[in-house]
Design a protein that fits this description.
Elements: H1 2-17, H2 28-34, H3 54-65, H4 70-76, H5 88-97, H6 102-111, H7 120-131, H8 137-146, H9 148-152, H10 157-169, H11 174-183, H12 192-208, H13 214-224, H14 233-247, H15 251-259, H16 270-286, H17 291-300, H18 309-321, H19 326-331, H20 340-352, H21 369-384
Helix pairs in contact: 7-10, 12-13, 16-17, 18-20
This protein binds a DNA duplex (22 and 22 nucleotides) through α16 and α21.
DNA sequence: GGCACCGGGCTCTGCCATAGGT
DNA sequence: ACCTATGGCAGAGCCCGGTGCC
């Protein structure tokens, strides 16, 4: 208490006498209101003139002991370091009480320094709102560790509350909301109006494509692909147009595609979609496929559009090195789902086991690990008696 | 039991730009 | 002038197993 009043006195002095070293961002009233809660953050030094105020040194010490990467944090949000008051200790205590480790706390502040400007009340309220969606504190900590920005970027708890109400009113189930918060936490820090925009956009799209139940369509798209809510409508629109024009689809087929395998494609960055598709087309045409075959292939296995130029080409080349023909590949497009390293390992093992990939079924390459191992074991058992794989 | 077909699970942050507030 | 809140962008896969048919 003595410390606190001493601090207040010093602050007053600094308010009156400070020159040059400080940037005052708060009214005196607002500032003083904050003092009793922040004994660690404010200290006075009547001698300080040109040099950094002492509370800044204290803050840096605090942050360093918390394992914060100061350089990184300063680069990310320099403004935080010019503030008179920050609440790093309070934040630490709060997060510890929710089960976060010291390491995670340090990492969170390093990556999103503005976190230390939030008050306990605001954090607590926000946490409770997140807990309405998530079953445990630990799950929230996991999200924060992945994406601190999503939790801390906005301080508008009322907007968050309304967002949750809005998304529920759209018909998203608690389970779906949970998936949304886990997979696209940014949706909950973007504004309510931005979320509404996307929902309205999806409704309009479904109506223009002749969907009979737009609310159903919206629910379905979001539950299938939660991250659509963190894309811009411009991006989603461009991808829908791409699908429509690249494959010359009528409304009904386009709708089927968007509701099914195309749902994920809507997230792709626009240049990326076109670039990857162009690459696939060029590569397959150069290997003797017809335009029609290429279209059919891509349409039947849209996930290949996710593959970067290098990944796609490397996989094709790698398969063809084992004398697998391009027609085998496009008939078994699933093999392109498999990672390059798995492909290589399996091809080596299969060849070693005497399996001729150029004439046999290459679907083996894309089996699940369990099924593949069983298959290989059996093959080896047949050819070499009993042998463990 | 073996196979083909298919849907779905995990998972998407970190940065920059800028309007608007103080 | 400076900071905060927010929008928006680039980047770019892999794996599992249920089910129904033979």
């Amino acid at each position: 208490m003595i410390m606190a009043s001493r601090n207040i006195w010093c602050v007053r002095r600094n308010f009156v006498f400070s020159s040059g070293g400080w940037t005052l961002q708060y009214s005196a009233e607002r500032f003083l209101k904050l003092i009793p809660f922040r004994p660690f953050s404010v200290k006075c030094d009547s001698d300080s003139k040109e040099r950094t105020p002492l509370e800044n040194e204290d803050r840096l010490k605090n942050l360093l002991t918390m394992g914060v990467d100061i350089d990184l944090a300063r680069r990310r949000q320099p403004g935080v370091f010019n503030r008179v008051v920050t609440n790093e200790q309070e934040l630490k205590i709060f997060l510890l009480s929710k089960g976060a480790s010291d390491r995670v706390i340090g990492s969170i502040i390093s990556r999103y320094p503005r976190a230390i400007t939030r008050t306990h009340e605001s954090l607590s309220r926000r946490w409770d709102l997140w807990r309405k969606i998530m079953a445990s504190d630990l799950e929230i900590i996991n999200i924060l560790e992945r994406s601190p920005e999503s939790f801390f970027r906005s301080n508008n708890n009322l907007d968050l509350e309304n967002k949750i109400k809005f998304l529920s009113s759209v018909g998203l189930t608690p389970k779906c909301l949970c998936r949304l918060l886990t997979r696209a936490p940014r949706a909950f820090s973007n504004s309510l109006s931005l979320n509404k925009q996307m929902v309205e956009f999806l409704q309009k799209t479904s109506m223009s494509l002749g969907h009979k139940n737009p609310p159903d369509f919206v629910r379905m798209i979001i539950s299938k692909n939660p991250s659509i809510l963190i894309q811009s409508t411009k991006r989603v629109q461009a991808n829908i147009e791409f699908l429509q024009s690249a494959f010359n689809l009528d409304k009904e087929d386009l709708l089927l595609l968007i509701c099914g395998p195309g749902a994920k494609i809507l997230d792709l960055s626009n240049e990326c979609t076109k670039k990857n598709y162009t690459n696939i087309k060029e590569k397959l045409l150069s290997l003797g496929c017809t335009e029609e075959e290429v279209q059919k292939f891509v349409l039947s296995s849209l996930s290949v559009v996710f593959l970067s130029e290098k990944k796609f080409n490397d996989k094709i080349d790698c398969l063809m090195e084992e004398k697998i023909s391009i027609s085998q590949i496009i008939k078994n497009a699933r093999v392109l789902d498999v990672s390059l390293s798995t492909l290589k390992t399996r091809m080596k093992e299969l060849v070693h086991a005497g399996y001729d990939l150029s004439t046999s079924n290459i679907a083996l390459l894309s089996l699940s690990q369990k099924r593949y191992k069983a298959k290989l074991r059996k093959m080896l058992g047949e050819s070499q008696g009993t042998l463990d794989v």
